[in-house]
Fold this protein.
Amino acid sequence: MTVTIRRLHRGHPASTAGHYAGSQALAASGAAGAQQRSNNPDSNGEEDGSAMYTPFPKHVPYPNTEQSSELMNELFIFGFTIIASATQFLHLYRSVWWLPNSYNRQAVNFYLIDWDLAIFIDIMASRRLLYCCILRCIDANCPEAYADVSKKVAKYTFLAFVLASFVGCGAQIYQKASYIHLFVLSYPLVLYLMIFGLNLEQFLRTIVDTEPNCINGMPLHSCSSSAGAIRTEIDALRTDFNARCKQIVFTSLLNAYYAGFVPCVLASKHLYYNNFWTTQHLACVFIGGLTMCVTYCFPMRYCDVFHRAALHLGQWQRVSNRSNSVPTYTWSKTNIYPHGTYVRHMGEVYRSVGYCTSAVPANTSHYRFYAIFSNHIVIYLTLFAVQMLLIVLQLAIFALTPEWQNVLSVAFLLLINFFTLFRIARDYFIARRIYANEPLYLGMRMQ
């Protein structure tokens, strides 16, 4: 991938100084001029820094790594949810068929299972996978001129089918139980309306394009020399990131709710089951589903876009004790400032700690964006630690349990969690290898 580099700012002639020493020399020359002007009684010693040269970061070329498609990710999440639901039913309805005087010849008391509830859970878990398959069929067979109309018709037709299925299963459950069961089943749907409103696309898809500059759920980065354009891009990326975080939490809670919580709550009150095993199963399903959704919604290419934008955004650090010999510029929203520049904004003095800084001083959202994505490998490392801790805990439980249903439950979840751990570890080690040479591209190390 060819990456262009813009060395200068505000239309100044090209220069070959691409390393940190060159940028510091240019900033120092501008600072010396400002210091001379500060000694002039006709000058107040504060400029907006528009005459400074600002080198722009050169991004590390990113390799073409294979990423899982939306269909494969939805299939993976569906399989995880169904297995989690089946093993929770196994915790509830296992039998003692191995005893000599047992009247049951099957390992599970199938006659105690509410199959309408099981169908309801299956439909809820498979809705996104089925909708993704429908979209794939439309893209493969429908002419491009009719694709958008066909997708809208398919979306509302599929929603009507899902709603009719929910109503049918709910009616059957209500005849056998009470309205409390309906409230338990419909509570996440009411919560969805409170979080996402009437936007139905988030109910059928995990990743939805939130901005025009987005292709197949992947935002694009534009290396701009305009500070306003950079901040606009940051706001769009931040909106997309927050939407994905909201979707991750909701999807993880929804899958854990229907796969682990609903079967226990709606079980017969005369049914005896082990609360410890059902509770730990619910917790493991939620944590495993959360890390799985994070790896799905935040792939390496997505985080690389945010990292590149963070390099252009930069960060301001408030300075409490500043030497009077260091010149201070008046911050301007149209300027991009090099590393080490001091500016004054709203009565406070700030120092640029990024390679180039276009952020607004004292803007907490810009501060958090740069703090997270300037070194986004920490995200992979945190996920790796959480997933490893979950697997170690499950291995300990697996080694200590003597009961067959618990062994099957933990073993199935371990297989899926090992695959998630592989994806996280792959992303982490690839990203660490790529960005290890980034200071050579930037020509500096951030202080």
Remarks:
- The first strand starts at residue 214 and ends at 215.
- Residues 20-55+310-369 form one domain.
- The chain has two domains: 20-55+310-369, 70-298+375-442.
- Residues 1-46 have pLDDT under 50 and may be disordered.
